[in-house]
Amino acid sequence: MNTPACRICGGPLTPFLDLGRQPLSDAFVDPGQKTEEFFYDLVVAVCGSCTMVQLVNEVPRDRMFHADYPYHSSGSSRMREHFEQTARDILASRLQHPEAFLVEIGCNDGVMLATIAGAGVRHLGVDPSAGVLEVAREKQVRVMNDFFEESTAKEIAASDGPADVIYAANTICHIPYLDSVLRGVDALLSDDGVFIFEDPYFGAILEQVSFDQIYDEHFYLFSARSVQMMVRRFGFDLVDVELLGVHGGEVRYTIARAGVREPAASVASLVKSENERGLADLEVLHAFAQRVEQNRDELVALLTDLRDAGHRVVGYGATAKSATVANYCGLGPHLVEFITDTTPAKQNRLTPGSGIPIRDHAAFRDAAVDHAVLFAWNHADEIMAKESEFRDRGGRWIRYVPHVHIT
Ligand code: SAH
Ligand code: TYD
Ligand code: ZN
Questions:
Q1: Other residues' Cβ atoms within 10 Å of the Cβ of residue 39
Q2: What is the pLDDT of residues 205-235, one digit of tens each?
Q3: Does 332 score more than 80 pLDDT?
Q4: How far is Cα 30 from Cα 333, in angstroms, rounded to an integer?
C-alpha cells in the first residue's frame, strides 16, 4: 500500500491508531430504514513533516453536513453561556467601529451569532446544514447556506467587503480541505483582522485518553505546533492561544496576517510544552493507542459483568463521540438498553452502526435503570447537577474517560 500523504503539506503520514469500521457519527437510523448505512475505516495518523494529526480516510462532506444534520449547538446550557460570553468579548475587543463585520464559519443554530445580531453588528453565518440554519434565522441571524471555502469567501468579500473577524467553533477541525478555507480567509480578512477558531485539543485527548473525540467529522486533531506550521504556509501567524475548559479541553487559536501582530508569549510556551510532552512522537502515540485498547477491553468487560449480574444499563447522551465508542467496542442493545438524549431529531431513532434505541428523558426517569454510561462526559457538571435524583435512588455512572470506572 502507498504511504498516505498529509492533507496539509503532502508529507508522509504514519498511522498510529485503528478504530475499525465506523458509520457516520451523526447518521441516526430510522427503525424502518431500508437504505444501508455508510461505513469507512477510522484510522488516525501523524504527519512526519508538519506534525498534523489527521484521519487517513475522508468522508464526502455532503454525507455529513446536510439539511438533516441533527447536532444543535444550543443543546447544552454551558455551551450557550460559553458562546454568549465569547460574542460579548469579541464585540468589546474587536467590533467597536460602526462598519465592523464578523463572519462565522459553521454557525449552526446561531448560538453565538444571536448575541452579535442583538448588538446590531454586521455579520454573516455560513453553514451547509439547512435545518440548523432555520433555527438561526428565527434568532434574526443573517446566514448563507453553503460550505465555507475559497469560492464562498470571495463571494462574501465581493458583496460585504472585508471581515474584521472570522470566527469558528468546532468546525475548522471538521474540514479536510483547509487549503481552500485558508485561501478563503486570505481573500476575506481585513488587513489587520483576525481569524479565531476553537477546536478539541489533541494534547487533552492524549492526556485523558478521550479517543471518542476521534470520528468522521473530527478530521484534524490540532495542536499549537501543527496549527502554527499550517497557517504559515498560507501567509498567516499564530498570534495567540487560549486553553478552554469546554468539550473536554479545547484550544482557541488566533491567526493574523504574517508580521501584522506580535505573537503572545502563550504561543511559544504552549509549543514548547507540546514538544516536551512529545505530542508528535511515535512512542507517545503508540502508548496512547495501547491505552485506548485497554479502555475498550475494560469497558466491554464491565458492561458484560453488569448484564450477567442482571443490572439495567443505559447510556446518557447520543453524542457523535458515542458512535466511536459503540462501534469500536462492539456495544449494542445487548449491553446498553437505550441511550437517553434531549435532541428531538435523535429520539426514537437508533444509534449509527450499533442499533441502540434513543429515548427521551422521560424514559430515563421512568425506567428502573441502575447504571448509565456517560457518553456526554464533556457535559458532566451540567448533567450531574440535574440528575441528582438518579444518584439518590442508587443509580451509578459509568465513565470511560480518562479510564473505565463507576462513580
Ligand atoms: N459552531 C457550533 C457548531 C459546531 S458543529 C458549535 O461549536 O457548537 C459543526 C458545524 O460546521 C455544523 O453545523 C456543520 O454544518 C458546519 N460545517 C461543516 N463544514 C463546513 C464548512 N465548510 N463551512 C461552514 N460550516 C461547515
Ligand atoms: P456533545 O457532547 O455536545 O457533542 P458531540 O455530538 O459532538 O459528541 O453532544 C451532547 C449530546 O448530549 C447532545 O445530543 C445533547 C445531549 N444532552 C442530553 O441529552 N442531556 C444533557 O443534559 C446534555 C447537556 C446533553
Ligand atoms: Zn503535513
A1: 15
A2: 999 999 999 999 999 999 999 999 999 999 9
A3: yes
A4: 15
